[in-house]
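Exercise 7. Predict the structure of Cytochrome c oxidase assembly factor 3 from Odocoileus virginianus.
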Amino acid sequence: MAAPGAGDPVDAESGKAPLAQRIDPTREKLTPAQLQFMRQAQLAQWQKTLPQRRTRNIVTGLGIGALVLAIYGYTFYSVSQERFLDELEDEAKAARARALERASGH
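Solution. The predicted structure, encoded as tokens:
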């Protein structure tokens, strides 16, 4: 009987295909053919998920850009509506006028 994972498409005892195992190429000695096959499988998997990842990246970028523009626009809107400094200036003018009135009145 062959070793498990040695190319048997179906396990004789359970009748199921063997599961893929994670292999660390730095620890295990792999042949150049095995390394080439791993590279091909990784490339195929990467190419398979590329369109989905690209779409997701575009949507995320547009969402972040819209959020930045919304914050930027809201900041300009709120600053243009701000009357805080105008009120302070009015109060300062009134205080100066009262001070001048008191000084000239005495």
